[in-house]
Amino acid sequence: MGSVVSVAVDACESLTAFVLPSGQHPSQVTIKQASYRIDVLIGEGGYSFVYKATDRVGRSTVALKRFAIQDADEQTRLLEEVSIHRGLCPHENIVALIEHDVISLKGKPLPEIWIAMEFAGPSMQTLVNARLAAGKGVERAIILQFLGDTIAALCHMHAQSPPISHWDVKLDNILQGDAYKLCDFGSASKTFYLCQNSQEVSIAEGELSQRMTLLYRAPETLDLWRKQRVDTKADIWSLGVAVYTSVMQAMPFEENPLDILNGVPKAFRDKGPASWAVGNPGNSLPADAQDIMALVMDHMLVADPSKRSDIFTVAEAFRQISQLFQVPARPRPGFVSAQKSRFAQ
Length: 345
Hints:
- The protein is of the alpha+beta class and 345 residues long.
- It is built from nine helices and ten strands.
- The strands form three sheets. The chain has a six-stranded antiparallel β-sheet, covered by helices on one side. Strands 7-8 form a two-stranded antiparallel sheet.
- The longest helix has 19 residues, at 140-158.
- The radius of gyration is 21 Å and the shape is globular.
- It catalyses: L-threonyl-[protein] + ATP = O-phospho-L-threonyl-[protein] + ADP + H(+); L-seryl-[protein] + ATP = O-phospho-L-seryl-[protein] + ADP + H(+).
């Protein structure tokens, strides 16, 4: 589920509810010589906070993330997150990182880390919730746009050298704007897991439970004794969950590892193989959703990661649905270094 709270403004109308308690939150901060006025607290989790703020010079609105460091290992991990995020920018479908700073505090042994980013939001989860509350579905055009934009963001991540897994793709981390943008890189990784013994399984279970959100976790991340590699393919499953939820207005699985390990979404159980196929007489989905769900079921929500499509194959399949989508180039063999094992000697 990542190490930070989302930048999404999920309740723009109720921002006034997040008043800044005196003494706990500063009224201004300087990050690498840029001064920001802190306007409102828009989210918090654990020892991290997200503020809406204003650049005192350019008057632009930004999002500020503030981390109260608890130990040296956490500081190292957060700086790695910043490094990954910065390396992915600029990209039109990734929330832009403007600057960061490590700020020492008088009387405290450990500093705080502050990150200034573009202000984007609300999240796709907010939109889905609003449509559900109104008794309406999410429009096909919106689903196609957020899917195409998120595919583009993941193609960019998976084309890095080595490839970068996001590992917390979910509706909360896909923000609306002139384009849909992927945010929160607190779970991002340049390594993969392939456990060989009980000690490695124990370590991986603890780390993955911190990085990933259960309802979006791929089967191979929940049963590490299967000895299936946990890598960028986990992002494909998570994206499939996000799209399925947008179309069906319900999660595909219960918040239970055994249900996810079943591998078949609730809506398609007991309906026979490929009941989601376009033109199948037993397909009860709306006509304008059938091709989207076929893409999800044939390429993304595939329980065996070795049979699940990579993001570039997903992009090629999506091109058949959205003719305006430009398929990002697949990295040329030999030009991208491979991910290393988390347990490499």
